[in-house]
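name: query_chain
kind: protein
chains: 1
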Amino acid sequence: MSEEREPAMADRTYAVAEVEGAYFVGRQSGLYRLAPSNGGARNLYRGWQPEAEIATLDIATSPRYGKDGLIMTGINGGVARSEDGGASWTALAMRMPAPLVTCLALSPSFASDRRVLAGSYEDGMFLSDDAGESWAPFNFGLFDHNIFCLALSPDFPVDGLVMAGTSSGVYRSANGGRLWADLTMPSGDEAVLSLAFSPEYADDRTILAGTESQGLLRSDDEGLTWEPFHRCEGAVNSIVCLPTVAGLAIQVDDSVLAYETGDGRWRQVAAAGVHVAAKSEDGRALLLGMADGSVRRILMEAEE
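structure:
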């Protein structure tokens, strides 16, 4: 199969994921698959929509579902799904007019319950219990329909806890996204751009929220109350929690900081050029989607 030229630097990266050692990168022009060496970027939509540029704002994967793993992407118009590692694609119909899907989340028990949550810009929340074949909007109590990010509790199949970051704050659902409650934030009406549950959530009940201008917030009571955790200049666009000594990293504008859980220090791991940060497939490394279209992998270890 022929390789394509690397997209231009203006082709913004919105999402990055790792599946079986390969990187999947969502960009303004489509969804790309890169080898670990970052060579041979290939737009996976070309066989589906040869002439179209399809902005891909989020990527959700389930490697253990289907023959070669399932990939779902949030696009302008709804959700696209592949069940063969990106070789072929299906557009999953949502209500008309078709929404711009900004974020996706698969249930931790997706292989059995097939539940997907999709947040959109201006149209709120959509739920599917059949891997995206059908969708229903659930905006009860959700007064801000501009959803920027989603996070599911590690025990979501049992507790049904979902957090949604919007243009005016955080909403919480305790029944799988069907009913929402607006949470009071210390910064007032502030856009929340990123959310993450602690890997030890069952014990510490900690949730983190990255804001547009008020830094990183922390809740230790399942999201009911919040307090400042790290004040910084710039937008906290990504939060990555890793089960290692350096257990937390945040993307602030286009740089990345890591938090040393042992001594409470922050250190810079990337100075500039980062469009998005995510967790590696094994959960031990940071994946950074860079401005030049490449992906950097950084093993998170504590400094001496």
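note: Confidence is low (pLDDT under 50) at residues 1-9.
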